[in-house]
Amino acid sequence: MATKRRPSNYRQLSLLAKNVLLDIRDDFTTKGLDAASLTEQYEGLAISALEQKYCNNAGVARVDFDLALKELEQDDFAKSGPMVPYENPPGSTVVFFGMFSAHEYMYLTEAGYRAAAQMNSEKPKSSAAHVHISGGTFHQSQIGIGEQVTQIQKVDVENDAEVIERLLQLLSSSGAIVGQSIKSEVAQLVEITHRGNTAEVKPVFQKLFGALTESTKQVAWGILTAIITKQMGL
Questions:
Q1: Is position 3 within any domain?
Q2: Are residues 115 and 139 both part of a single domain?
Q3: In this structure, are 107 and 137 located in the same domain?
Q4: How many domains, the chain?
Q5: Contact of 104 with 81, CB cutoff 8 Å
Q6: Are 147 and 216 in the same domain?
Q7: Long-range contacts of range 99-106, CB-CB < 8 Å, 24 or more positions apart?
Q8: 3-state SS of the chain?
Q9: Using alpha carbons only, what angle is made at residue 64 by residues 63 and 68, rounded to the nearest 5 degrees?
Q10: Does 186 lie in the same domain as 102?
Q11: Nearest-CA neighbor of 77 among 35, 139, 25, 122?
Q12: For residue 67, what are the domain limits?
């Protein structure tokens, strides 16, 4: 019995899938393609480039990356290509005919273009983030996070529970699913930050916050920097 396909709704996509979709849309726009290309198979954004950005640079797990691409294809927001014929093994007594994706690039569909446009139109306009550190306290002006604007006035960087809570709020407000595993990793991140070694902090930070917006990453990194600065007695 065939599985009933769920209606395409970009709001059901994971945060990572949404970010990848916007990358594919930006590639489409940069190439100056027209609406006709959305119903055809054009040479889209290289999957290797996406893998470099998210897996290598941002520390996203490969399985999460692959699942994000799968989400986009299943909901018809993007497709992979090029399509190549199935190669039957020499001498095989059973011959298969058909085409399959070589999975070298991702290209945009009409549904994907419309979804990306809606995602952009719903983004709030936020003021630039300004950070001030004084007396071991992190101060933050109003910033836009995910689909809402959150006011973070200060964080006591000597209070680990408060720091962890603020970092989890940033993740949650950005659309991340904050389960027990994420909570443990954020607690570990704060613990590592207290050692004052930024080279040790960055990989964990990138894994947790690498796929989020620049404004969110700036706030989270500002909090961690405040801890390191306090440790140094500055």
A1: no
A2: no
A3: no
A4: 2
A5: yes
A6: yes
A7: 103/47, 104/46, 104/47, 104/48, 104/80, 105/43, 105/44, 105/45, 105/46, 105/47, 105/80, 105/81, 106/20, 106/24, 106/44, 106/45, 106/47, 106/50, 106/69, 106/72, 106/78, 106/79, 106/80
A8: CCCCCCCCCHHHCCHHHHHHHHHHHHHHHHCCCCHHHHHCCCCCEEHHHHHHHHHHHCCCCHHHHHHHHHHHHHCCCEEEEEEEECCCCCCCCCCCCCEEEEEEEEEECHHHHHHHHHHHHCCCCCCCCCEEEECCEEEECCEEECCEEECCCEEECCCHHHHHHHHHHHHHHCCCCCCHHHHHHHHHHHHHHCCCCHHHHHHHHHHHHCCCCHHHHHHHHHHHHHHHHHHCCC
A9: 115
A10: no
A11: 25
A12: 10-87+98-121
pTM: 0.52
Phi and psi at residue 120, to the nearest 5°: -70, -40
| Encoded amino acid at 104, one letter | E
Contact between 217 and 209 (Cβ < 8 Å): yes
Q: Which two tokens stand for residue 128?
A: 């630039």
118-143 residue pLDDT tens:
887 765 444 334 444 444 444 444 33
What is the per-residue pLDDT across 202-225, written as a single tens digit (0 to 9) for each?
Answer: 888 888 888 888 778 888 888 888
What CATH code is carried by the domain that includes residue 40? 1.10.10.10
Q: Among 129, 121, 165, which Cα is nearest to 145's?
A: 129
